[in-house]
Amino acid sequence: MAKEKTKTVFFCQECGYESAKWMGQCPGCRAWNSFVEEPTAKVKSQKATAAGVGGIKSRPAVLNEISTEEECRIPTGIAELDRVLGGGIVTGSLTLVGGDPGIGKSTLLLQVCKNLAQANRRLLYISGEESLRQIKMRAQRIGEFSDILKLYCETNLGDIEAVIEADKPEVVIIDSIQTMYQESVASAPGSVSQVREATGVLLRLAKGLGISVFIVGHVTKEGTVAGPRVLEHMVDTVLYFEGDRHASYRILRGVKNRFGSTNEIGVFEMRQEGLMEVKNPSEYMLNGRPKGASGSVVSCSMEGTRPILTEIQALVCHSNFGIPRRQTTGTDFNRVNLLMAVLEKRLGLQIGSCDAYVNIAGGIRITEPAIDLGIVMAIMSSFKNRPVSDDVLVFGEVGLSGEVRAVSMAQARVNEAKKLGFSACILPQVCLSNMPDVDGIRLIGVRGLGDVAQYL
User: Fold this and answer.
1) What would the mean pLDDT of 175-192 be, rounded to a whole number?
2) Of 137, 184, 317, 449, which has the maximum CB count within 10 A?
């Protein structure tokens, strides 16, 4: 008897688009060279059950009868994580945690297990990368664990599904999704088919049994979660760890959240005993700031409802090459080039032939236009070698005509500056006209870049 030929299809690694043949450009997301060949899984056909026999598990609901009460949440015991999640872990949710290797994903989730175990929550930590001994050694550095936490080392998704259905834990940790495989899918673990199938099984378990599931995902060189982009569409929440793994700081950012805001961030510091919360990120970011140095300006950015003060550093010097070099760290490269062009056109600064380096100290990445005025003053301060006063905060958006435009939540930014001991604040004149006076801090309104130069 002739051997049955295995059928294969082509999947887009970016959006999960399926095609019978290879294509150079995906019709769904327009990505180039993103198709990979995967064997198809054989699915047993199920006969449809007629209505009224009991086969229909759910029925359409009337909109006015649907309850709008807040989802049941489980506090993690880590305030920064609860802030990013929107108040805690939602029952029956599926959360994806991504980040570079060694940045602290497993450590943070193990700390969550420690806190939940102390609150008598049933937990199951499933690892496909580490042995039970390795997890035990890492747990000893974090602290004492109760007997409620259960560890399970397995990569077969069928066995994992059976264990979850038998134990019925409240929270499940999957570390990591790229190591899980389904026997019915004839492809290697980590492939497009395996990752999509594994996520689908975990999603069904989370919604069907009311279990909160956390899955750890590795990232590619571009900083996105490895595997198909459809993985991010299937989950309820996507959290990314940012920062250098060799540095002590870590930033947890919510990229997607169906149960809360996606603008919040959590700041952590890596220590010997694990990830520790940074209660005041502004004070932490300004720690070690030089005094009386040119090219150093403090600005304020809003991350959700939280104002964060950061130091903007600029270094402008004459270039020894025909084409000047420009480099940015922590902010948009094209935005800095645009602001330098505005300075040269509107104020007559001859910086077109100069090398320029702009850095956001502390490792955080900021793209909000409110730091435009801080970048401009830092570049001017370095070019003229005139320092900005150490007790002055600067924020505002700069337009192409050199005008300083209004920004949102100016009152919260000024209050944060006052709390940290700043005596003056340079802000757009439009914001100043709509804001009451604040005791203990002098507010200076500016309309354009011509008004800013005198404060250097």
Assistant:
1) 83
2) 449
Percentage of the chain with pLDDT > 70? 90
Alpha carbon distance 99, 214 (integer Å) = 14
Q: Helices marked H in 132-259 — which ranges? A: 132-142, 157-167, 192-209, 230-234
Pairing of strands 171-175, 73-74: unpaired
Edge to edge, the sheet with strand 265-271 lists 149-153, 123-127, 171-175, 212-218, 94-99, 237-242, 249-257, 265-271, 274-277
Which residue pairs from 69-78 have beta carbons closer than 8 angstroms and sit at least 24 positions apart in sequence?
A: 71/259, 74/116, 74/121, 74/170, 74/171, 74/212, 75/119, 76/112, 76/115, 76/116, 77/112, 77/115, 77/116, 77/118, 77/119, 78/108, 78/111, 78/112, 78/115, 78/277
Residue 141 pLDDT more than 70?
Answer: yes
Distance CA 384, CA 56 (A): 75
pLDDT digits (tens, 9 = 90+) for 335-384: 999 999 999 999 999 998 999 999 998 778 898 999 999 999 999 999 99
User: How far is 274 from 243, CA to CA, in rounded Å?
Assistant: 16
CA distance 293 to 69: 53
pTM tops 0.90: no
CA distance 217 to 228: 11
> Nearest-CA neighbor of 101 among 248, 180, 191, 217?
217
Terminal-residue alpha carbon distance, the chain: 87
Report the sign of the C-alpha dihedral through residues 182, 185, 191, 193, in that order: negative
Helix (H) or strand (E) holding 430: helix 429-433
Dihedral sign (CA 360, 361, 365, 368): negative
**At 449, phi and psi to the nearest 5?**
-70, -25
* The two structure tokens encoding residue 132: 């039970």
Pairing of strands 237-242, 94-99: parallel
DSSP string spanning 232-274?
Answer: HHHSSEEEEEES-TTSSEEEEEEEEETTS-SS-EEEEEEETTE
CB neighbour class for 315 (10 Å; exposed up to 12, middle 13-18, buried from 19)? middle
| Residues 6+ away with beta carbon under 8 Å from 2 | none
Q: How far is CA 196 from the centre of its chain?
A: 22
